[in-house]
Amino acid sequence: MCKPNKKQFLYRYSQFYPKEDFCHYNMFNHYFFAGEAASRVCEEFLQEDRGGPVALVADPPFGGLVEALASSFQKLVAMWSPGGGAGSSTSKELPILWIFPYFF
């Protein structure tokens, strides 16, 4: 997820963005390296434009566990959900672009 020139979830960007605009995040176990403060930054980012265009773009490494990623996606969708997660009456969905480097 990113908003051009503002928030990034790639660690190398921590050199350029302050803690208030950046989250170092492990998507395999939904872990924010800076703890609750980073989780709040993420939630504020996801809810920033209420109804505005947001998409989750994920390009995980080859061989990553699908179940772990899907669980994190669900948690991020719940953070984004305008109605506050599960049981929400909203019909909006968070678009997810999952680059799936798995070969069968």
Automatic annotation (TrEMBL):
GO terms for cellular component: cytoplasm; nucleolus. It is found in: Cytoplasm. GO terms for molecular function: rRNA (adenine-N6-)-methyltransferase activity. InterPro entries: Mlase_EEF1AKMT1/ZCCHC4, ZCCHC4. Pfam families: N6-adenineMlase (PF10237). Keywords: Cytoplasm, Methyltransferase, Transferase. Its main location: cytoplasm. The keyword Cytoplasm applies. It comes from the Eukaryota. Signal peptide: none annotated. Coiled coil: none annotated. This is PCIF1 WW domain-containing protein.
